## 1
Amino acid sequence: GTAGRGRQHGGDGISAAAGETVMMSGSGSVVLPAGIMNPSVPIRNIKMKFAVLTGLIQAGEVSNRDIVETVLNLLVGGEFDLETNFIIQDAESISCLVELLEHCDITCQAEIWSMFTAVLRKSVRNLQTSTEVGLIQQVLLKMSSVDDMIAASEKDEVVKSKTVFRSPTVTTQNTETELILDGDDDAVSLLQEKEMDNLGGPVVLSSPAQLVAPVLVARGTLSITTTEIYFEVDEDDPAFKRVDSKLLPYTEGLHGKWMFSEIRAVFTRRYLLQNTALEVFMANRTSVMFNFPDQATVKKVVYSLPRVGVGTSYGLPQARRISLATPRQLFKSSNMTQRWQRREISNFEYLMFLNTIAGRTYNDLNQYPVFPWVLTNYDSEELDLTLPANFRDLSKPIGALNPKRAAFFTERYESWEDDQTPPCHYNTHYSTAATTLHWLVRIVSKISPAATLPLIIVLCAKSPNYDYTVCKNGNVSVPQELIPEFYYLPEMFVNSNGYHLGMREDRTMICDVDLPAWAKKPEDFVRINRMALESEFVSCQLHQWIDLIFGYKQRGPEATRALNVFHYLTYEGSVNLDSITDPLLREATEAQIQSFGQTPSQLLIEPHPPRSSAMHLCFLPQSPLMFKDQMQQDVIMVLKFPSNSPVTHVAANTLPHLTIPAVVTVTCSRLFAVNRWHNTVGLRGAPGYSLEQAHHLPIEMDSLVANNTGSNKRQITDLVDQSIQITTHCFVVTADNRYILVCGFWDKSFRVYSSETGKLTQIVFGHWDVVTCLARSESYIGGDCYIVSGSRDATLLLWYWSGRHHIIGDNPNNSDYPAPRAVLTGHDQEVVCVSVCAELGLVISGAKEGPCLVHTITGDLLRALEGPEHYLCPRLISVSSEGHCIIYYERGRFCNFSINGKLLAQMEVNDSTRAILLSSDGHNLVTGGDNGVVEVWQACDFKQLYIYPGCDAGIRAMDLSHDQRTLITGMASGSIVAFNIDFNRWHYEHQNRY
């Protein structure tokens, strides 16, 4: 494709002088009328020029490259150059471009739209020209071929998915309009917003639908407005009337409403093996699933929802066409396999990715996510994770691990006599509703007890040892795999609700799951299994298990050879329910599908690549696994600011895609600095800093601060309440480094300042007393996030930060009076610390003399976190998306809580700690305080992993770079110190025997 500039030979890509013959590369020659394709001819001939180009395309006489170059040259009336000649000269050329695209193939369209987007971004004048001619309205008139284009790309399973996903798709449903282009679509989004201002209507789409939930499927009506999704259950439906009323309190969404601003991803899904469902993921890590009458309705719904794609985690464009992509296309086009191979993500994260794109969901028990058994030793007093004998062979299905059992299933397959049913090795599946309930039966929040109690006697999990033995050796038992909770949810092994679960063979009551001797408590069992899942023994063979469940050994001859064939009704495409006209037969077929389980969508038809070995990656120059030891020093650099004021807040927003990756610092005197981050390792030499060696170091001092030339642009001059102690809790920096939020003002507000100019941009009121602390959640699409403010009035307010409008609130016309999303109550004293996690949907806060409370982001008080007797005054809180909550109390006391309120560990240190943070996976805790020493701990049990050399001043704040490889601390001496940090090294050095 064309990249930035036209080719050097000049003129239109297919231009010629009057009467000359134009030679097309590899495509013969065409005689053109005088001056038709010559840019020097007046622009009034633009329509004729496009007509000639269209004729050449139809005749197959021109290459895609020449088409793109010619179009660009015609748009600007000369030789196109993205730097010097990019202004669209005539609005009519845009209309001609839309007409011409109908005659181009998908690849050519993608290249033209990609370059046209770049042209729009270069100039407001270009945007205005496009708006004047009604570009979007013109696009809508060309919609007849869109469904065919999508259908063609869906059918082409062999096409290179990169090409498929670059193809432009122009879609509309009702009043929704959009151009779906490659890249971030910023310019076109601006154009779209202007066009959408003139469009309206309360209900964009309404359709019959089924709400698919774990314990029931309810018919109703789905309605979509311009800002929300609504679902109303049909309470007169006979099937709904037959539902046990005890189930209804456990089913969310029967009369549901979901805000567009909360939507983070949209996936197409299967229901009963039909591609007619949709799952919408929300900011608080929940999701809702709907089934529709047909695939056409699914497309209409997708086009009526926000353009979020499948989220931001998989390296895919946020476009509706991505939501409509097949699982195989998502797999091929995402960057997750490469990231897993490079060990940038864990085995658990990768398996969750595969399950998610393959259609597995928490909302349908027949399609629950699938995880492998990895350990085989449940008998020993201790477990050695360095012994291969303790690990399962992941190249074989769980039902074929025992040689005798494998021979039995081979004989069954080869001697199959039923002519009406294709042969299979197993009559039951490794993942069914029954096997899921088997594990989740003790958890009321997951499954209603009313639904599960009738099944408990048969399904209740007794011990991992018993279940694994049955899966491996039992000839007629279910060859079940595991569910994700096995690796992160210890509560599922405990009968904390006191259910009557039946009797064992020895007539004793079944209560908690009997754990192996090497696990003293459920938390140990889950943690050790998780470590086993991430071990080298599993990493080096996990791709073989993926081949069985999601890959080329799932179907066909390879599945037969691998003893991996299940009942035919478990496979996608095995039955078309719409073709069954007999209601009784259809109902029976649906019941069979639900009984047999469902195989995930097949993601690849060739062997899955293995994970790179840890030793191999150790020798790559920028490997996250490079164990530095003597190779690099603990301290990378020290950066001293001229003010000497203690650095009390550090925010390291260093992602490469940011306009300004930076480490933002704020001092006690409210002087801030935007210190540019260099995303290269470079030469990390001894401590020290100079302008000459700045390009070798990761952090470059803010020039306005270093040169003292623009300190007025870096000073927050508004006075704070004199009774407020300036701490790290008084500040929040937005994820794009462009705004700083500050609290503590006498007028009971908190304020928003521009980090570019230092100017005040918004004042936010809501509390009845001084605001004492602020916290920001992780950011999502467009920089949107939650802000939580805590106050002396003993309340917290949850606010919404709009990354699009750069304000608190999502209405730019009402930025002076934004309203909080929720009011969080329960404290009876001043709130001094708070943390918010959008993925968990939780806010954890601490009052001056305790306690710590857990709220949902909707304002519901869930529980208090009760520490030991003398742990009374919380000061710091850190929460990870994995559910770890670390609280620091006065006098050097730490507690680790689960999000369900269980105290997991505690410790006391001699330092007065001022800053804490958890690694991204929640496994490691980093602390720093008045003694100037950074310490690293294992979060689960507070085992000390590493102590850094002491600094000559106390530590006031800290943050981690995006890659978790650099720790930046703010010092009481007015400097920041950057440390090398290597969580992987401590992971591999940690003892492997339990």
## 2
Amino acid sequence: MPKRGQLRVLLGAAPGVGKTFTMLEEGRRLIGEEKDVVIGIVETHGRAATAAMTAGIPAVPRTLVEHRGVTLEEMDLAAVLGRAPQIALVDELAHTNAPGSKNEKRWQDVEELLAAGIDVVSTLNIQHIESLNDVVEQITGVPQRETVPDSFLRGAEQIEVVDLAPQALRDRLSGGFVYPAERIDAALSNYFRLGNLTALRELALIWLADEVDQALKGYRKDHGIDRTWEARERVVVALTGGPEGETLLRRGARIAARSAGGELIAVHITSQDGLRTGNPATLAEQRALVEKLNGTYHQVIGDDVPTALVEFARSVNATQLVLGASRRGRVTAAFTGPGIGATVVRESGDIDVHMVNHAAAGSRFTLPPLTGALTRKRRILGFVVAFLGGPALTTLLSLFRSEDSITTDVLSYQLLVVVVALVGGIWPALFAAVLSGITLDFLFIEPLYTIHIHQPHHLLSLVLYVVIASLVSFIVDRAARTTRAARRSAAESELIQTIAGSVLRGDNALQALIDRTREAFQLPGVRLVKAEDVLATSGEPLPDNQHTSIRITEDTTLELCGPDLAASEQRLLAVVTAQLAAALDHQDLEQTAKQIEPIAASDRVRGALLTALSHDLRRPLAAAAAAVGGLKAAGPTLARSDKQELLDTADESLAALAALVTDLLDVSRLQAGVLTIADIPTDPAETIAPALDELHLGPTDVTLALSHGDALAHADPVLLQRVLVNLLTNAHRYSPAGVPVHVSTSTFGDRLEIRIIDRGPGIPPEKLDDIFLPFQRLGDTDNTTGLGLGLALSRGFVEAMHGTLTPEDTPGGGLTMVISLPTTHTSQEQP
């Protein structure tokens, strides 16, 4: 069986970057090294430079495949296998073969060549990688049906990115080196937009970097290499959930930023039982900060924190570790030995460790308060169990008392202490321990019915019993407190998260806050009252005079129904009230903005209208008045030609006034939403021709490139013609003398586009949005051209027809106005 061939893939971010040219260049180089190289298939796409590169490289003739009366050319796989070259050049790896071919996809043909021992050099665009297909579609808006599985690409021995800067690619496209002239404008304004090309280029580089990283990990694993390789800086920041985390993250981000490609990784170690963890709210804030710093956040389970931290750092090939300085005091460190930082430094090996000082370093921990773990009812119940359970147990043990039963007696009283601790907490349990110790001495230890103990070991046993019972009581009570504290922390964390999310979203923020407040504090009812109006309520109706009122603003109060809150709950309640106040302010500002905006917009329009009317109505009114005045003053003595000239002037001026009034009425109809639109399948050519006739524009003024197909636009022909008249008027006015305006139509998917292209001065990018505002001329001081409503009306008409009107820069200078309208079919064309 022959040795499997090697695959080399030339990867490009977009068509036209030079993949095929580079492949042919490599073929020529290999021929110069006396290698047996053949062209399996090369797609030149009519590019002369690419076709010229094929000269001198042997090519296997293509096979012809008939499909539905069309003859298609495909790579002759059998012929290439029969030729058995050392290296085959196979273009467009993602190509779908014609029906009737041996394999459905060209990459499957390449697989057969590789299996036969033939090395293959092939080309591929980033949009054809299976795992990136949906990402590319989101970027470009163009779905790709031809893809290559990632598993096949990972088997390639070499993957090389053929890179070209986005603007350089657009320049190459504008020069006609990629697509024919009739496709250049459409490609530049769609798939080959600068933002698209930049995103695709970044995607290609990131994908290749990840593949290289995976290959590096595989190599280290295969060769048993555990030590860190500093291929690029990876900085791991250890978070405890303490306040120092923000300082550590920012320090880690600065370290990562010092080298190109540096990566920030944050990790938090939690214990397997989940009890040892940081403040959830603080960790959530730090996780958000990690995302802002372009890092990644990980949570790892491990009881041995230093070991878990070092193992994680090695697993991600980290080069540096950032930890906070110990928060333990000197006395604690003296008794407990080296801390986490010292242990990590000892075990880190090749990984550099940074110990960062912070405000909490060296401070002592304080134990959480023990009050409030159990309710008063539970504590009273514990004392009742101790009072009643002790005599009942004593009576039961007295019935079975013997000389050898002392051990059973002690364990029985020990069990009673544990039960009391579970029911009532530490103080009832301590009471039960002391009481049971006295009972044991009085009733079960010789001499009976006295508090004297003759045997020293009995005294020691009794003392140990009381101590053990007290310790067990403390442990059980502490466990109960820890459980309750954990539940409270989870509820507080969820409440804080809800508070933040509700205020940020703004939707029903007040109701969400009220609901979560009642649930978190376990209250029967909560409501928010402003003056006499209830803004939000949750739970049961609040009886009068049976609630606690907390003032939020001057006229707004939060009413809580239920018992008074503990001190720790009061602190959390302060956060809730602050966020309620913020939500109320936000709500008031939104309402004020909604009330002010129509007034402000109306004032702006009124001012612009008065300014425009003062300029644009004056000329036609003055001209009409002068013409009528001249006719009246001259009387019958006026020559016939002069009379006709004055009549023409008056007619022209009155027509201009009528057009201005029509535009104003249309603007008001658009703003009121009462413009009547006819939805008729329309051929763009049938509206372009009348528009040209209306403007008296001929072939020397406008060139046409209209597509002929079965696509018709959903449009109102009358309004579409008015839009074209406005756009053609502007394009012709600003085009240089002797340079015609170009009008083209094309179909992309379910949209039909009409492009009006001029070679005038263009519009600055920061002014592109302003041209569609009413009464805007962008520096045009010619008052004979109307009120400046043309483009505002045009966009309004197009959007009323469910289309878009978009300005774009014309390659080489000028402005392109693109009308995009829905079509009657959904065919998809790829640039």
## 3
Amino acid sequence: MIKSVFRKIANNFWLFFCLILGSLLITAILAAIPIYTDGALRKMLKIELDKFSMENNEYVSPGELYAELYFRGEYAPSGVLSVIDDTNQATEEVFKNNKIKRNDSFRKVAVSNLGILEENINQGHSYSMQYQTGIEDHIKILEGRMYENSVQDGVLEVIISSSEYNSNYFTLGNLYTAKQRQYWEDETKFLKFRVVGVYEPNYKDVNYWHKSDVESGMRSILIASEEAFQKYFFNDGNAGYLSSASWCYNVNLYGLSKDELEPYITINENLKEYFSTLYDGTWNYFAPINETLVEYIEKSEMLELTMWILNAPVLVMLLFYTYMVAKMIIEDDKNEISSLKCRGAYPTQIFYRYFLECGIITVFSLIAGPPLGLFLSQIIGSANGFLEFVNRTGLDLTLLPEAYFYALIAGIVFMVMVLIPAYKATKTTIVQHKQKKARRNKRPLWEKAFLDVILLALSLYLLYIYQMTDLITPEGGSDMTVYFISTVFIFACGMLFLRLYPYLLKLIYHFTKKRLPPTIYATFVQVSRNGNENRFLIMFLILTMAVGIYSSNTAGIINTNAEDIAKYKSGADIVVTPNWELDSVITYTAEDGTTITGMMADLPAKYRTFSTDPFLEADGIEDMTKVANITGSFARKELRTEWQRNVRLMAIEPYQFSQVSWIRPSVFNKDIHWYYYINQMQQYPTGILVSRELADLCDLKVGNTMEISFLNTRVEDQLLPDASCYVLGIFDYWPTFYEDYKDAEVTDFMVVMNLNYLLTVDDAVTYDLWFKKTDGASSDAIYRQWEQAGLMENVAEISDRQSVLNAEKSDSLVMGLNGLFSMGFVATMIISFMGFLLYWLLSVRKRRLQFGVLRAMGLSKFKLSLMLLWEHLMTSGVSVAVGISIGYLTSYLYLPVLKKTFKTMLPLTLSYNNADNIKIYIIVAIMIVSGIAVLSEYINRLKINEAVKIGEE
């Protein structure tokens, strides 16, 4: 049995190669989903964690959980000890139940508000005595020694930080007496301690130290041994001294998967729930990264759903392709199956033979599919556009157990798809087989059930629903099901064309049959009578072209939007922040006109000036403008008393700014180009532009006067305006006006004014230099020229638009969309090419006798080739043309909905990239020409002239 299976595979190599290819692609694509998702999510997590660390400082670990209890009047001394013990057990139990690795942790209990009864120590300064578990491993003793774990004669041994030792004159070995402020007058309430050592904290151990410890430098803190501290204070007599207790846990979040992060969130929820059972106002709980992680998990679920939705059409086509190939193989084998049954073979034996064939293919796919899925994931990760790939690194991709699990599912589905027609064939007798062959034009089930009409109506109805509703999810994500529905529309249109195509052929044939030459006449007859057999090929080509065009247009819109956002966020091609330094000696002109030269401390601040002209001399620089940004300003409508805080003030040189910066005109004002406002600002120096949120809050309209304060000038604690400006316009978008702009506490409030006017008010304003590059200029080459000219000494910071664009293109969702669209198109192209070849090779092989008869009737070889060419045009050519039409129709109908499905910084603009579509046309043309070339070579080898003789014999 096994030998016969391998012999059959060898004899029908190309058929089985096509089947293996389908199985391998299904397995690889399914395996690629968890592989890429895992790598993309790990990268997303790393970006979020790094962003958190940068926004705080290098000593704050993102995986920190910190809780603090305050012991006030609500707790009796015995209650204090009880709650400390309960909390210790609760926290350990939470971590035990949710297995997650801790980097480090500590517990501390403190006696606060201590005054030291020593003449050389400030009596008004308060100290805290505490124990902190694990501190011994994170400090270095500089002088003295480590404390002992015992209490001798009622005296606690403590160590202090070097900063405390240097500032408050503690002496090593001295005995000190301390009292809590609330017991200052009680002669019986005091405690004694001896300073035995001075230590230096190792703040590089970020997983141990809490932010408050780092910021305080451990000053005013006396550290005692845990054992000695508990002996001294953990009793009913002294427990009343205890002021607070803290628990700090640090978890390593880097490199964790979504599933591994969920225990962290569970721990956070359980701890928060526990502390909420304690007295209100007596506890604080901090998990600073938790909200970010919750958003991250929501994003990860969205990414996973997106991966499945975008892969679904390709997977359906692969399954469709697999079923088609399997059916072709079974159709080719039906005579053999009938012959075996006539010779006494049982249906189960014949079915088992096909089961072995599928098993061999499935095992091969299970072995090779996941590594191929890893390779496909790397391709997805390197996508920079539709059918555009770059040498990008950064995704940490590994073969996961889930990949093999999905591969196994793919193998099972593949076997089911192949064995269904095999099972049906084993139940068919030779008589039934001949009868079915005689009824070639039997309508398929989907056509009888009007499935095409149902799917078309459903997709159009959902399109209407989507147009009427908001597709942004409550979490801020995007509803990607619109892509799946648009694919259903493509399928429905393809099937509708299959329904109408025979009638279209009959209509053309009816009006032209008397004038058709023999070659075209024979082609019409062949295509019309062979409708059921060429349906698969026509459908495949339609889907390939339509999905390719739609995916190309979708990717083009998303990539164009990413590029626009990069331009919008960066402001200019290159933004240079000069290294502004205050002059130590300043020449100042007083109000009476006299010139004064003095030290910086004696005169108003003035920055050292430098020439900007040398920057423009570098090759590749086209233009430059100066832009000042002042955050934390105040603004109000004239005659109002209340100031609006946290206003960002941008000052520009209007004309130069319009030449260097960029904004999409359609987002500024639908009716008026933004150059109009630039011209207004040029004409009226005191004119300003105001963000809509600020205008609404201050009840501002065009023509109103706004007062602005940015120098914090006050008289009797009353803020005075530094400038009074005229409102020229109100905007929703402006270059660099976006959420999370650097140094801006509130990002909704912005005022744009004339830089020259601002400098008349305050000539000490600092500004950035915004540069526009010439087309094709390299930023690195420009930087090298500046370096050689010695200009980089005056530069504090440089931001480049290309780096912002790379960050936008490296976004996991954008990268995944580009990769999936490209991979899906390539996969469909491969299977379409294989299906194309398979159909025509089998068709020509079946019609060998027909071709021989035509040749014997006098049809020349050229006309026979011409007849096949016409057949190609009426199947492949028509399919490609219809597919292109359906693709553009789908883009026209469904891409406007894309505006509502993506929540982005700028609204999406529907602009189509014809270059991507041209790539599709070229690839399809190569596929068809290659297929015709292979087919021509195959026909030449068939020896058609001998077909009649073979038939007669």
